[in-house]
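Quick one:
INPUT:
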C-alpha cells in the first residue's frame, strides 16, 4: 500500500497516524445527507457522522442558510468586551434545555478546551473558597477526555492514547467505575480516605467513547452523583460525545435523572459544521467566582471564543432539534442496530455486540490490521473507522433505513470473512 510519503504530500501531519506507514487518506470533494462523495465520484455511506458531530446529516439546508447569513453580517468579533446575539441566544437556549440550574455558559472552540476550562473552574472554585487542599481529580479507567495535557491527565493512562506520557502529566486518581459490588466498594472506600484532596469527579456519562465504547448504567451515575454530594465534590459530566441525543435522551445525564455541577459540550453542538464547545456551570459554581477581587475571576478566554458563525450554526442545529423528530429517530436507529448487529454475535472473533441509542458496537477479540479492515469497508461502499478492537457505528440521526442496513450488512460481511 502506498503511504503519504510515496504520494508526495510532505506537509500534512495527520491525526493519530504513524506518518511513515499510514496509507493516504481518501480524498473527499463533497458531502450530502449521509453520503461522502470521493474525488473519483464514488459515494460512501457514512457510519461515523464525522467523529459523532453531523447529527442531522451533512449540509442540512437550515444550518447552511444560517451560516451564510451570519457570514455576510459578521463572521467573528472578539468576545472580550464585545457581545453578539447568536452567542447570547445560544447561551440562553442551552441553559433552557440543560437540566437543573446549569445556567452559566463559557464558550470555547474544541472539546478538549471545554474540558480544560471545566477542570480549571473546579480547581479555582475551591481556591476561591479558601480551600487549597483539593487539587486532584477523580476519573475512571476507560475514560477519554481529550488530547490537551490537562484532559490527557484525567483520561485512562494505561489504555488510552496517552500511555507514553505517564509520569509526566499531573497525577490524578484514575480508578475503576463503580459498576459492580467490588468496584463500588473500592470507589466508596477511596472517597472515604481521600475525598479531602479531591476537587471533583469527571465522567463521560453512560458511554466511555474513545476508551472503547464501554457502556454503564444510569445507576452507576446516580451512585457517583450521590457520593459527590456526600463528600462535597464537584461532579463534571463530559457530554462531548453523548450530548444532543446520541444515547437516546438529549443529554445522557437526563437518563439518570442527575444534574452535574459542570457539563462539557461540543461535537454535535453545531450539527457537525463548525468548531464550538461549551462548559456550563451551575449557579453555585458561578457564584464562587463573584467577588470584589479580580483574582477570583475565571482567567480564560480563547481567541475564537463564541465565534459568531459557530453560534449561528448551533442555534440553527437547536432549531432542527425542535422541528424534526430527532429523538424518535434515535429510538428507531437503536431498534434497527439491535436487530441487524445481533447476527455478528455468532461470528468467530466477536467478543461482544452492544447498542445504546444511536451507537452500535461490535467488539472483536482483536483486530490485527486496522488499515486493511478500513479498506475492506471502503470496498463495500461504507465509511467506518474501527479502532483498538472495536468496530462501531454512530450514524447521523437522519440516516435512512436502507443506508443503515447497508452499514450493518457491510459490518457482518466484512467481519465474517476477516481473518
Ligand atoms: N471528551 C470526549 C468525551 C470526547 O469524545 C472528545 C473527542 N473525541 C473530547 C473530549 C475532545 O474533544 P476535541 O477532539 O474536540 O478536542
Amino acid at each position: 500500500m502506498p503511504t503519504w510519503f510515496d504520494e508526495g504530500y510532505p506537509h500534512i501531519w495527520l491525526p493519530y497516524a504513524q506518518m511513515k506507514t499510514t496509507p493516504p487518506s481518501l480524498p473527499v470533494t463533497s458531502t450530502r445527507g449521509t453520503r461522502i462523495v470521493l474525488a473519483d465520484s464514488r459515494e460512501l455511506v457514512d457510519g461515523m457522522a464525522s467523529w459523532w458531530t453531523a447529527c442531522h446529516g451533512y449540509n442540512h439546508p437550515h444550518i447552511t442558510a444560517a451560516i451564510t447569513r451570519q457570514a455576510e453580517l459578521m463572521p467573528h468579533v472578539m468576545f472580550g468586551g464585545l457581545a453578539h446575539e447568536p452567542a447570547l441566544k445560544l447561551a440562553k437556549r442551552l441553559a433552557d434545555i440543560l437540566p437543573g440550574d446549569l445556567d452559566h455558559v463559557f464558550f470555547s472552540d474544541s472539546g478538549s478546551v471545554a474540558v480544560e476550562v471545566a477542570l480549571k473552574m473546579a480547581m479555582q472554585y475551591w481556591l476561591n473558597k479558601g480551600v487549597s487542599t483539593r487539587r486532584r481529580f477523580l476519573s475512571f479507567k476507560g475514560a477519554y477526555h481529550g488530547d490537551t495535557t490537562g484532559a490527557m491527565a484525567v483520561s485512562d493512562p494505561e489504555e488510552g492514547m496517552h500511555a507514553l506520557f505517564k509520569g509526566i502529566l499531573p497525577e490524578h486518581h484514575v480508578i475503576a467505575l463503580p459498576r459492580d459490588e467490588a468496584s463500588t466498594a473500592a470507589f466508596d472506600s477511596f472517597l472515604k480516605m481521600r475525598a479531602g484532596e479531591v476537587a471533583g469527579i469527571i465522567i463521560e456519562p453512560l458511554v466511555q467513547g474513545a476508551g472503547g465504547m464501554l457502556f454503564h448504567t444510569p445507576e452507576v451515575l446516580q451512585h457517583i452523583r450521590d457520593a459527590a454530594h456526600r463528600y462535597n465534590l464537584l461532579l463534571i459530566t463530559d457530554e462531548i460525545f453523548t450530548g444532543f441525543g446520541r444515547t437516546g435522551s438529549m443529554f445522557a445525564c437526563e437518563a439518570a435523572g442527575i444534574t452535574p455541577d459542570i457539563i462539557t459540550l461540543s461535537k454535535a453542538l453545531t450539527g457537525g459544521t463548525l468548531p464550538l464547545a461549551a462548559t456550563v456551570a451551575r449557579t453555585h459554581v458561578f457564584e464562587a467566582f463573584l467577588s470584589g477581587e479580580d483574582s477570583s475571576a475565571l482567567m480564560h478566554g480563547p481567541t475564537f471564543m463564541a465565534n459568531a458563525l459557530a453560534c449561528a450554526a448551533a442555534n440553527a442545529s437547536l432549531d432542527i432539534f425542535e422541528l424534526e423528530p430527532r429523538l424518535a429517530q434515535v429510538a428507531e436507529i437503536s431498534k434497527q442496530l439491535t436487530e441487524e448487529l445481533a447476527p455478528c454475535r455468532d461470528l468467530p472473533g466477536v467478543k461482544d455486540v452492544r447498542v445504546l441509542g444511536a451507537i452500535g458496537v461490535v467488539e472483536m477479540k482483536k483486530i490485527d490490521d486496522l488499515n486493511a479492515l478500513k479498506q475492506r469497508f471502503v470496498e463495500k461502499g461504507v465509511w467506518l473507522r474501527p479502532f483498538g478492537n472495536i468496530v462501531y457505528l454512530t450514524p447521523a440521526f437522519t440516516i435512512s433505513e436502507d443506508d443503515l442496513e447497508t452499514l450493518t450488512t457491510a459490518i457482518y460481511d466484512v467481519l465474517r470473512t476477516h481473518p
